[in-house]
Amino acid sequence: MAKLVINGGNRLYGCVDVQGAKNAVLPLFAASILTNEKVTIKNVPDLIDVENMAKILRSLGASVVKNGKNVEIHADNLKSSEISHALAKELRSSIFILGPMLGRLKQAKVAYPGGCDIGLRPIDIHLKAFREMNVKIVERSGYIYCDASNMISGDIMLDYPSVGATENIMLAAATIKGKTTIMNAAREPEIVDLQNFLAAMGASVKGAGTPFIEIEGTDKFKSVEYTAMADRIVTGTFAIAVAICGGEIMLNGCKGEHIQSLLSKLAKTSCNIKQYDDKIEIASKNHREAIEYIETQPYPGFPTDLQAQIMALQAVSEGVSIITENIFENRFKHVCELIKMGAAIRIKGRNAIIKGVDRLSGAEVSAQDLRGGAALVLAGLNAIGTTIVNDIYHIDRGYERIEDLLKKLGADIRRI
Q1: 416: exposed, middle or buried (C-beta count within 10 Å: 0-12, 13-18, 19+)?
Q2: I need a surface site. Which of 46, 78, 127, 138 has the fewest CB within 10 A?
Q3: pLDDT in tens, 351-374
Q4: Collapsing DSSP states into helix, strand and coil, what is residue 240?
């Protein structure tokens, strides 16, 4: 099993071309089956999760061809409306396929999705919305059976602004005659990206980025070439990396507005930040002051996907910080591994109390999930001595050869 070996202490200098966003690309892959025409998605990252989504599309009968950072999808001959347990267990985002399957095929048999074990991520919000759209749903033996032969448009109020549910409803509603309005919709930039993709395919969607999204359905979807947005979580991870190591880096191809909740906090610690249209320049003098309080919230609040990484920074920042995790109840698995490296962290319910130390110490640790694994890499970049991060297949689900980018910036890191 591959692992990362890190010798900490190096400052980071240079440029990073930020990869395409995994959380944008996956729903775009799902949306591609709405049309019989060929779809080309550009800026696709080379990730395990993306390959797993490609496998799901192929199992349905779609052609998926990768050419560098471009992927061509042609779903003119779908032959199945089932996603097996073997495929769904590897990818939480397999649930995104449900909406377009209902729209295109009017039926689906989908196994409950898997992914990182970071707590309950119930899909009941998705299913409740589909039932309101007159989809008949039966849950039996680990599968969800759906009949959408009489699916209708209408107003849907979400109990929580779920990103996945918002996107799933958009994908299904894009095929239904009439107007569907999603109220209390999630506002993440990836939802705006999906809106733009659907519009390029011929759908009428407006309001993404606000709590109210309106979709006018169509049955005339067309071929499209589309470039996916940059990954804001990868952007944030590298921003935190320079804050924890010191140095100066330029992040290319990304938008500061997508991670403003993070940048505003880093600006209060050790970082000087300059934002441009499609790049962010970050410099750190390596004197880190603790951020007093951080609370994860739906966008535009502080993202749960950066909670573990910011905790690694707080572990070596002067003072005491409190982090409250509001999104997932089991997203502190990285804490025990950080403590092995000398971090002073105490957990009380959904709160982590961190008292900063000068430096961490190298240790052998294991990634428990995707973002927690990234946090351990950041901690290793700071630590005195050698850090070995095991189970990095978690990290590979969201970061495209993270060690190569860090090495170019001056980090002493290698994969073995």
Answers
A1: exposed
A2: 138
A3: 999 999 999 999 999 999 999 999
A4: helix
Note whether 4-19+230-415 and 22-227 share their fold.
Answer: yes
Residue with tokens 């403590």: 339
Whether residue 347 contacts residue 332, with contact meaning beta carbons closer than 8 Å, is answered with: yes
Is the four-CA dihedral 68, 71, 72, 75 of positive or negative sign? positive
**DSSP tag of 380:** H
Which residue is catalytic, options 116, 245, 254, 271?
Answer: 116
Q: Is residue 133 helix, strand or coil?
A: coil
Can you tell me the distance from the alpha carbon of 343 to that of 379, in angstroms, rounded to the nearest whole number? Answer: 9
Structure tokens at 390: 């095991």
Query: What pairing do the DSSP bridges indicate for beta strands 412-415 and 4-7?
Result: antiparallel
Overall pTM > 0.70: yes
Q: Just give the CATH number of 22-227.
A: 3.65.10.10
**Rounded to an integer, what distance in angstroms lies between the CA atom of residue 374 and that of residue 392?**
9
The residues that bridge with 66 in the sheet, in sequence order, are 71
Phi (first) and psi of residue 288, to 5 degrees: -105, 130
Tens of pLDDT, residue by residue over 31-84, are 999 999 999 999 999 998 899 899 999 999 999 999 999 999 999 999 999 988
From 20, 30, 178, 39, select the one nearest 104 (Cα to Cα). 30
Q: How many angstroms separate the CA atoms of 133 and 396, rounded?
A: 37
- Burial 241-262, CB ≥16 within 10 A → b, else e: bbbbbbbbbbbbbbbbebbebb
Q: Is the peptide bond before 300 cis (omega within 30 degrees of 0)?
A: yes
SS percent in the chain: helix, strand, coil, step 5: 35, 30, 35
Query: Is there a contact between 380 and 362 (Cβ–Cβ < 8 Å)?
Result: yes
Phi, psi angle pair for 53, to nearest 5°: -65, -40
Q: For residue 215, give both structure tokens.
A: 């979709």
Catalytic residue check, 116 = yes
Which sequence spans correspond to the domains of the chain?
4-19+230-415, 22-227
Rounded Cα gap, residues 389 and 151, in angstroms: 48
Sign of the C-alpha dihedral, residues 322, 328, 303, 337? positive
CATH fold group of domain 4-19+230-415: UDP-n-acetylglucosamine1-carboxyvinyl-transferase; Chain (3.65.10)
